[in-house]
Write a structure and sequence with these properties.
The complex is a heterodimer of chains A (345) and B (248). With 345 residues, chain A is of the alpha+beta class. Chain A is 23% helix and 22% strand. Chain A starts with a strand and ends with a strand. The mean pLDDT of chain B is 92. Classes of the chains: A alpha+beta (345), B alpha/beta (248). One iron/sulfur cluster binds next to α10 of chain A.
Chain lengths: 345, 248
């Protein structure tokens, strides 16, 4: 482990970028902290507690083009004719998908332990059989510089959510604030290599992560029955804005869209767009039937997916306790009131 | 296939936007359709007569006696009628502005003037494409779906959805009145993304919930009265209905 001054820590993004990584850093603008691509003039925010986006937005970017193909669309005087496989029987031609895998390695600088654990959750979803090739290509060779939190804000609950500890593979360099400098603990070969390029003030023993101070303490009880029975306080003021899923670092739902163009109608792009269970079309099936009709249905569904469904399907919880869904909800709806017991909130 | 583009009382901003923003798609449009009526582009083939078409796009609100006559002629001669823009889908600013004033002596040239109404108050409308002005991308998407015999769709989310996806700081948090939670999305949260509140220029979201919205802004210290006057100002009939139902 080494001790460095703040200037050296702030050099790390350029070091990583020289090492060939696409570096993502927390930046502050207009009162929000957002992760963004590193540029030499990036104002890096080392003091943030909460960011509105998450590593997810880079590993599973919204509107990602999956591939393009040529359809049999032709422009006739009767209009544009596209033969859809599902509408008019089997597809008349083989689709030769033109596909380029995303390339390059990504490095996340100064993410928090809950973010690191959100990547661990996304891995268990996206890499389970069959693995998503786009996600895998982005994620392979990833490096994370994890900045420990001393104290959470009013909305953080990573300690009750048991997501402050870092599994192997989810932290290449651990960073701890210490006096007027920082302690850097490399935890992988790649991490060592990056850290060795910084000017250290001194070499020290080693550190392990420790839990941040929490402002609330409670236990999570989130079985399906708990969620069905728990009160959904304040849900009448929910406007279905979907902020709770858009800003959640573990939400991965998506929709697939084929994009046609008027000028060259046979050139079709297939893209993946973000989706949210708070939206109407999420549970809409043929005929226009909606399963999750009310706000309460959608609220409980979100919690069920985060807790019992994820535990059952992937063996880990889908909630890392970052508190974004609470902090960014304009209606102030707090899921700790539904799944937290013995809460002092 | 035949298409036509009509203007009722409006600023003609929607059709102008299509002409300027469709780019190469505008020419493609002419290849796909026989367009006998699109006055902003060229003299109509059959003069002022409303031609028989497969799809009619209509911008503007129904305000004058001529508008009333035209919209019923358009409906009678078109298989599919698309209301283009918020004037046509909601009545827009003219809806509220024309109410509570004495219109009996007003004339627009020699035409009688009435309280502004969206197309749907007079005829059956098959699809509404909101926006002040409409977006060329949404227009193209709707058109491609129509050409393929698939129902076009409206965004099912409010402006907040795209605003949050862009990572904007919420204006409600700083005590500014933003109608985003009530407003139909699809504009890419154009206004809040540059720090200006949304005034719901696309009409209400599919699942707009006024009561929930008023509770939400109260939490941010914004008075209900301030909100209701802003809501009334712009998006016409649908918001007026929402307000009426909300007061029940
Ligand atoms: S963030 Fe809040 S108001 Fe928005 S959909 Fe979620 S619970 Fe509803
Ligand atoms: S559900 Fe809420 S607290 Fe849990 S990870 Fe998502 S945003 Fe964070
Ligand atoms: S179901 Fe809802 S809560 Fe779960 S990942 Fe999808 S959007 Fe997020
Ligand atoms: S600024 Fe307006 S549109 Fe954006 S999230 Fe807040 S209320 Fe919604
Ligand atoms: S943000 Fe609101 S006012 Fe601005 S373009 Fe979108 S719907 Fe219209």
């Amino acid at each position: 482990m080494i001790r460095v001054k703040v200037g050296q820590l702030l050099r790390l993004p350029s070091v990583l970028s020289e090492m060939g990584y696409r570096v993502i850093v927390p930046t502050e603008s207009n009162g929000v902290t957002k992760f963004a691509d590193f540029a030499t003039d990036s104002g890096i925010d080392l003091h943030y507690v909460r960011a509105i986006n998450a590593p997810r937005d880079f590993l599973l970017p919204d509107g990602e083009k999956l591939f393009s193909y040529r359809s049999t669309a032709t422009v006739t005087s009767y209009g544009l004719k596209i033969r859809f496989p599902t509408v008019e029987g089997p597809c008349p031609v083989t689709i030769n998908a033109e596909y380029t895998a995303p390339s390059g390695r990504i490095a996340f600088f100064a993410i928090h332990p809950c973010h690191a654990n959100s990547i661990r959750y996304l891995d268990s979803v996206m890499l389970s059989d069959p693995a998503d090739p786009y996600y895998r290509a982005r994620r392979d060779g990833m490096l994370t510089v994890v900045m420990e939190c001393e104290e959470g804000d009013d909305h953080c609950f990573c300690v009750p959510a048991e997501s402050w500890e870092l599994e192997e593979g989810y932290c290449d360099i651990l960073v701890r604030r210490s006096g007027d400098g920082f302690l850097l603990q490399p935890r992988s070969e790649a991490g060592k290599k990056a850290a060795s390029r910084l000017e250290a003030q001194e070499e020290l023993g080693s550190i392990k992560e420790r839990p941040p101070k929490m402002r609330t303490s409670f236990r999570i009880h989130a079985s399906e029955e708990d969620i069905d029975r728990g009160e959904a306080k304040g849900i009448d003021s929910c406007t279905l804005c979907a902020a709770c899923t858009v800003t959640c670092p573990t939400c991965y739902c998506s929709d697939i869209e084929d994009r046609f163009h008027l000028v060259d109608p046979s050139n079709v792009e297939r893209v993946r767009k973000r989706m949210s269970c708070q939206r109407r079309c999420y549970s809409m099936i043929a005929g226009g039937n909606i399963f999750l009709k009310t706000k309460e249905d959608r609220y409980r569904w979100r919690l069920k997916h985060k807790f019992p469904f994820s535990s059952k399907a992937f063996g880990i919880s889908g909630c890392v306790g970052c508190g974004n869904c609470i902090a960014f909800c304009p209606a102030g709806i707090d899921m700790r009131r539904t799944v937290g017991r013995g809460t002092n909130k | 296939m035949k298409a036509a583009f009509y203007s009722l009382t409006s600023c003609e901003g929607c059709l102008t936007t299509l002409i300027t923003n469709l780019g190469p798609n505008l020419q493609a449009l002419w290849k796909i359709f026989d367009i006998d009526y699109f006055k902003l582009v060229r003299e109509p083939v059959g003069g002022e007569k409303v031609p028989r078409v497969d799809i009619a796009f209509v911008e503007g609100a129904v305000v004058t006696s001529l508008d009333k006559k035209r919209i019923s002629q358009i409906r009678a001669n078109s298989s599919f009628v698309v209301a283009l823009g918020t004037c046509a889908s909601c009545g827009n600013i003219a809806y509220t502005a024309s109410r509570g004033v004495d219109l009996s002596k007003r004339r627009l040239r020699d035409l009688e003037v009435f309280e502004a109404e969206p197309l749907s108050s007079h005829v059956n409308v098959d699809f509404e494409l909101s926006g002040c002005p409409v977006s060329a991308e949404e227009f193209t998407e709707a058109l491609l779906r129509l050409l393929n015999g698939i129902e076009p769709r409206q965004p099912d989310f409010s402006v907040c959805y795209e605003c949050k996806l862009k990572g904007n700081r919420c204006l409600l948090e700083v005590g500014k009145l933003c109608l985003g939670p009530l407003a139909m999305g699809g504009c890419g949260a154009a206004c809040p993304s540059v720090g200006a509140p949304c005034y719901s220029c696309r009409g209400p979201a599919v699942e707009a919930d006024l009561a929930a919205y008023l509770k939400t802004i109260e939490k941010h210290g914004i008075a209900e009265s301030k909100a209701t006057s802003a809501i009334r100002a712009f998006t016409g009939k649908k918001i007026a209905e929402l307000l009426k139902n909300g007061q029940k």
